[in-house]
Amino acid sequence: MRLLIVGTLKGQLTTATKIAMENGASVTHAEAIEQAMAVLRGGKGADLLLVDVALDIRDLVMRLEAEHIHVPIVACGISNDARAAVAAIHAGAKEYIPLPPDPELIAAVLAAVANDSRDLVYRDEAMGKVIKLAQQIAGSDASVMITGESGTGKEVLARYVHSRSTRAKRPFISINCAAIPEHLLESELFGHEKGAFTGAVARRIGKFEEATGGTLLLDEISEMDVRLQSKLLRAIQERVIDRVGGTKPVPVDIRIIATSNRNLSEAVREGTFREDLLFRLNVVNLKIPPLRDRPADILELAQHFAKKYADANGVPLRPISADARRVLTSNRWQGNVRELENTIHRSVLMAQGDEIGADAILTPDGDRLDLAKTAPAVAHATFAAEQVTRALVGRTVADVERDLILETLKHCLGNRTHAANILGISIRTLRNKLNEYADGGIPITPAGAGEHQRFVAAG
């Protein structure tokens, strides 16, 4: 956990620093916004900014956005002035902390940002085999590929490997290759020099240099453009990187862990992923089974999440009833651990009485999980697929593909994520196809109001 404290509140921020360090954070100080920006560009990085409310927080937020630096801000001040707190939140701060700092409040904020509650919880033997292999290779510097369906916990396992490596006390830096536009991803990875492109107002250190001595997680690496894959391959092979606009190579010392929810061997055959890069990354493959294939983990995780969200919401910890356990173990959990976690979170909030009963195990729409039928979007998409596959003779593959994509999107009410999952393609591939169709004048179903945009991939 890396904390950057910005401001000059004498004595008060010193106390905050002491509390943060007692909770395992490494702390850097900057007196002003420009100095803070220099720290962030310089490769030290930060997981959280604690900023004096007297500074221009809106200006700081705008600077961070302009340089595509993503880090949460918590404002702090020497009074409980409600107007100052509201102004800070409106300016872009995530929270406001009054000073002098309360140790428990500082600790809670740090824990929330670090997300230390992402424990590796398992009981099933299928998962146990994966963990045993992870423990065996954790101490090496070998590159690791972690594969599995979305929501199985790939990032959690990556952090587990890092925490048991010789690099555990060094940075763990994560970057989601699918969440960053292609034209920015190279700069995010390798950094850039001042003036390298429009908006490059100063030199910025990329994730490779930021992770020096530690571990770099390349999440959803299958979504990386092939052109950039060649530069990544060179960085891994030669342990040097080239900043965008730079004139000389920069040595780096990192361990690479990559994740993917796609079959990369198929991606190689399709020409969307380099075979030589796959060989470099896939020294060890940790393949996480889907939750439905490790049934003993379902109740273990459910009990863990029940306690977690009871504590988080300040409600009594209720045991999970026998009927509720049967509902949980009989469900397919297409969304894996992430779906189970959300379901238990709902059950903790909805449960009444002394237990979490089956009537509290609900879908997001509020229906009982054991009584819910196929989701409407899935049902519509299935019907659309059946319609499109009729009368295929005499039509080109491109025409059939286009109609299948458009009809699936239509019956998913414009939800790109659902449509991509049903079609078995990545969200980026779907977006590229839709852009191609739109350029050809074909109308596209607009995104639904409730669509979940995947800007942060979770394991």
Automatic annotation (TrEMBL):
Q: Where is the Response regulatory domain?
A: 2-114
Per the record, residues carrying 4-aspartylphosphate are 52
Q: Which InterPro entries match?
A: AAA+_ATPase (IPR003593), AAA_lid_NorR (IPR058031), CheY-like_superfamily (IPR011006), Homeodomain-like_sf (IPR009057), HTH_Fis (IPR002197), P-loop_NTPase (IPR027417), Sig_transdc_resp-reg_receiver (IPR001789), Sigma_54_int (IPR002078)
The Sigma-54 factor interaction domain, residue ranges: 120-349
What Pfam families does UniProt report for this protein, alphabetically?
A: AAA_lid_14 (PF25601), HTH_8 (PF02954), Sigma54_activat (PF00158)
Q: Which UniProt keywords apply?
A: ATP-binding, DNA-binding, Nucleotide-binding, Phosphoprotein, Transcription, Transcription regulation, Two-component regulatory system
Does the record bear Isomerase in its keywords? no
Is Cell inner membrane set as a keyword in this record?
no
- Annotated protein name in UniProt: Two-component system response regulator FlrC
Q: Which organism is it from?
A: Bradyrhizobium algeriense
